[in-house]
């Protein structure tokens, strides 16, 4: 079952991503005022949706880990955080590339930009914690940080919203209505990104599971060797 | 309930007595904050009008950095002679220990702020144009916001390698809304341009949310093995 689904998912991802690329560059209509720069939207927005979804899964998996202490939930939390940070980085890099020609500035402390950046910072610190903590307690510490991060997000959102209304900026990120074709292209790309995220998470999950098995076996062997030596 | 208050009081008075005799945390914090004030002061050299706008940020960045110095020392003392392990096997409630440590740090940072504020006023030529009494509320809430999570994360980073670096890496991202609220409220009061009410409410909400979270999860973190 797994052996067959994995390549199918891989082919599906490749098809969706190449079709999405074609549609984004050629198929979709050119935006009236922004021109071709707007096409980065087809990568920017779907990446953001994917990243937020992955962070959501990370939060749920962390809560499940705290309740059940299941290793699988911990590994899911780990891989979704890793892949989520990658997608979030794509969002934070493509955003300024678009903003510079359209808004005239690379960055502004707008509500969405700031919330995304803070989310990225929280999850990078999450990954650093996982790297630095001593192995036995890593899952627990990471789950606690994930919950603190999730509690933080609404507070960040409200604080920035008020911050902006206090200091109005010439930049307005209002969207207005969107051409149905444009939305369609964005959704195709999103489907491609989701399949790709699934694929990466899946292989990372299996790798991590094997890695832990190897570590366990090595620890067990070391224990048996020391017994024999005695 | 009385068990919590008794244990917390005993632990807090022990910490305060130790600090009173050694003055480790407070001295290093004070000198560190002094250095930050001096360095900021001559790198920016602002006029009175400018300094009113930027002082809120400078003051709190200095306090934040100095608070990390104290927070890092919070649990180190308990590691020697396995005090923390003894605490774990004792029937005393874990939250009592947490509250004692958090209140202890709160007192240290408040003392630091009391000493440093006059210096800031001298170096930056400050005078509040808004209601100055609100600064007391803001500093109490802002300090608690830093200290409650800081104490919690310091306990977590005990279990990591290079724990002194780990604490700010965990604390700063989570504290962004609290810092923003504190800085904005201070600026609002200093310049008198706008009301600080929203930021005070946000700080209070932040404190309620994270104090609850810390109390609910501290037991798990303390006994993690």
Task: Give a quick rundown of the structure.
Chain A contains six helices and no strands.
Q: Any low-confidence stretches of chain A, pLDDT <50, length ≥5?
A: 167-175
Query: Tally the helices of chain A: what do you get?
Result: 6
Give start-end ranges of low-pLDDT stretches of chain B.
none
Structural class category of chain A: mainly alpha
Number of strands of chain A: 0
Radius of gyration of chain B: 18 Å
How many strand segments of chain B?
Answer: 0
Shape of chain A: globular
- Overall pLDDT metric of chain B: 86
How is this structure best described in words?
The complex is a heterodimer of chains A (230) and B (225). In chain A, 82% of the residues lie in helices and 0% in strands. Chain A has helices spanning 2-27, 41-68, 71-103, 111-132, 138-166, 180-229. Chain B has one domain. Chain B has 225 residues and is an all-alpha fold. The longest helix of chain B is centred in the middle third of the chain and has 31 residues, at 94-124. In chain B, helix 6 crosses helix 7 (133-157) and helix 6 packs antiparallel against helix 9 (197-222). Classes of the chains: A mainly alpha (230), B mainly alpha (225). At the A-B interface, helix 4 and helix 5 of A face helix 8 and helix 9 of B.
Give the arrangement of secondary structure elements.
The complex is a heterodimer of chains A (230) and B (225).
Chain A lengths: L1 H26 L13 H28 L2 H33 L7 H22 L5 H29 L13 H50 L1
Helix pairs in contact in A: 1-6, 2-3, 2-5, 2-6, 3-4, 3-6, 4-5
Chain B lengths: L1 H21 L1 H21 L3 H26 L2 H4 L3 H7 L4 H31 L8 H25 L5 H29 L5 H26 L3
Helix pairs in contact in B: 1-6, 2-3, 2-6, 3-6, 3-7, 3-8, 6-7, 6-9, 7-8, 7-9, 8-9
List keywords for this structure.
heterodimer; A: mainly alpha; 6 helices; 82% helix; globular; B: mainly alpha; 9 helices
